[in-house]
Design goal:
The protein is α/β, with parallel strands linked by helices. The protein has 11 helices and 17 strands. Strands 3-9-2-1-12-16-17-15 form an 8-stranded mixed beta sheet, with helices on both faces. The protein has a 4-stranded mixed beta sheet with strand order 8-4-10-11, with helices on one face. Strands 5-7-6 form a 3-stranded antiparallel beta sheet.
Length: 319
Amino acid sequence: MSPRIIVVALGGNALSPPGERATIHGQFRHTRESLAAVVALASEGWHIAIVHGNGPQVGDELERNELAYERVAPLPLGVLVASTAGWIGYMIQQSLQNALLRAGIRREVLTVITQTEVDRTGPAATRPRKPVGHELAREIVERLQRRGVPVGEDGSGRWRRLAPSPKPLDVVEADAVRRLVTEGKIVIAAGGGGPPVYFDDHLYWEGVDAVVDKDRVAAILGSRLGADTLLILTDVDAVYRGWGTDHAEPLRRLTLEAAEELLNSEELGRGSMRPKVEAAVAFVRSGGKRAIIADLADGLAAIRGATGTAITGELSESP
């Protein structure tokens, strides 16, 4: 019998919440708090891959670049993505190892730095529109604008740095991750969406100075692993109709067709929920059984159908 495989996507804000000074001790604490659902899934025998975001963390690295510019050569954005994937992976790996030991579960956990092949010819590869980093104070926004650094509002109206975000096509090391996950190892992969790369006929793999949406990459990785479920954990308990209004209504179950209709409407706007729904739809469309979007604290309950938004290919009521 084939193992039940799940890909769990953790948002970077789960480890470094908005409005909180991002200390390493605080991020370790939030990491430990974010892993209850993963431990529960491991106890039930799921084979697991974890993808995490890095928006706040890579934004901090860009700030360090600026502060140290006079003394240390700055690192390109793609290298910063790989760097944060390494140390965030280390935090998750160590925290999860300890949580599993406390629960009496013997499973190996490891971090793999994977590269994400992207479409470097599309407009998204050169236009800086993806928010990264923490919210910026007005004086910092003005300073960055004077220097020509791209900044803009995210889906919640917060001013943040912006970076190009090309369309992901594949995870270069997906076959290796699949072998490890099939063996029962818990693998942290595609951290921060993975450093983006493209294939050149003469130079072969080359990096791109950009970031990639981690939820879209999680959907691709899930498809390549033959996963049953994609679980996207965020800071909202479900996908809502009428979000931000007095008539907001959670959508607990959507067919693939209904979710696509939702994307084709103006309901989700340009907010941060849109790419999550797009990733969920892409995963189910490519053969996954279900994709679930839920609050970080409700991961296991969402797997059991008690909360969150589940998108499947089964018949259900339209939104």
